[in-house]
Amino acid sequence: MVNRIRIGVGWTDPKKRKPVLRRRGYMLRSCGQPGRLGCLSEPPLLSRLPPYFPEPYFSVSLSGSGHGAAATEPRKRGGSDVPPSALGEFTETPLLFPCWVSASLLVSSSEDDYFRCESVVRNWADASSERGIKEDELTLKDILFFLHVPRTGGRTYFHCFLRKIYTSAQECPRSYDKLRFDPSKPNCRLVVTHDDYSLMSKLPKDMTSVVTILRDPVDRVFSTYEFSVEVAARFLVHPNLTSVAQMSRRIRPKSRAVSTLDIWPWKYLVPWMRGDLFARRDARELGRLRKTQEFSNPYDMEDMVMPLHEFINDPIAHDIIHNGATFQVAGLTNNSYAVESHHVRSCVRKHPELGHFVLEVAKYRLDHMLYVGLTEEHRKSATMFAKLVGAQVLSQSEALNSTFKQETSNQTEPSSSFSDSEADGLNQIEGSTNNQSDSEVPSSTHVEPARENMTVGRLMEIYETCISSLRKTQASRRTLSLKRVAPANFSKKARLSVPATILQQIQYLNSLDVELYKHAQNIFIRREKHIMQSAEIFIQPEDLQAEACGSSYGCPPWKSLLVIALLAIVVLITLFVLTGRRTNKVKK
């Protein structure tokens, strides 16, 4: 009776024309009998091999209950037979012989699916690499597409930079609502959206420049988790989810603005987290709440909020968050315009090693963007943005000055900009149904700065003032929101309490984003000097004075007096020292 089987797996490398052995630790499970190992529990990890390898060959060694020699019979799976000597054992375990049929079919199905997926992903990658005539990536074109990767600080750039140099009339309407997005609007010159790169299919490619900001993947996952909790917690003022739904139905028809719940990815993440928070609150009311003093890690308070380790392992996180920057730059989010995006995403999830095709496309697109900023290099990134992008927009604005003066004041359609989507919620759920939600897109009648006198130096001054005010507002709103899930109080200091194993897992789950971020860092370093030199041709003479005085309108009187006083002190000290030396020489 056969009660032991040895399976050898081998491949022939078509490039070297000789057998190549690859052992894989296949996981076995019981064939209907608890405690007995037999059939393969999942497809073997054959897809880890280089893509040019053909289907594998198998040899099966069967042993009886005694200790006699095994009978070996090679099994062919395409191509020529591989001699038994080229095959190796990878497991030896008791099982029933009929289970080998199941294993063979499973391996064949897995390999067929891998090669099908490889073809799908490779074809998409080839079509996505526009190897056309290389243009000057540092020259701003007619339309600026700000590809906003969530939780990278893009909202700050929009409110504190772009809204200072573009008018409402120049913003393309409803960028976040692709069903109503209309880039054909007259004077449409600015698109700011969480949509992925596939939106380029709706824009004139030869007239559009793309900019984006990337962030360290681990920090971005932390921030996504924290923001999801923060916004979802604002709904806890309601007694239950039914009340939330009723309030939303009453408010939504009255507002034309775009809510966070209409924006990718928050339209998926916030309802998910909101439902989880209500479920945990109900559980606490049933008496399962631990004492707050037992909580030492705010990222692992399972009775209050979804723990971080649970968040990162949920299928929703795998689908939307992990490697999100890479898929967004590649144009493959679950909100993509590309018809093949679903198939490519599905294949990469099933066969992670195919992700390198997606990564290469994302790298290529970063290389050809007008600007790539880094959240961690905030000051340098902002300065580069002002001198490169801002300076060119201002230069173009001089030719369109008459358009700025004709800015319409009766515009009613919301702008393309995002809501306070990185620090928002629904104000209405606080009990007010009359006030405009701070989660909505700000009114298109925002105050227009005086662009006639705008310079790069002045733009940086406005930016610094703007972000200071914006951060205070965000901090206040965040504190108020997190009180509802106290003692969960997220901060950079609190992140230090997260175990290293969790951090390593986040890095592993975001391996494509890690590589893309490294590439972005290299672009940033490589372009910094080049961009600054190129931007100098756009800097107006007044900015040289602004850099020295801190103002584009000349040095203020108090600064001038301070400079004169310092120079006078230096001169007096110098004269005193020289006079003292001469006196000493005369005495000698």
UniProtKB/TrEMBL annotation:
Biased composition (Polar residues): 402-420, 429-446
Keyword line: Glycoprotein, Membrane, Transferase, Transmembrane, Transmembrane helix
UniProt keyword annotation of Zinc-finger present: no
Main location: membrane
Location of region: Disordered: 402-453
Single GO MF annotation: heparan sulfate 6-sulfotransferase activity
Membrane topology value: Single-pass membrane protein
TM region(s), chain numbering: 558-578
Location relative to the cell: Membrane
GO cellular component, one term: membrane
Name of protein: Sulfotransferase
Organism from which the protein derives: Musa balbisiana
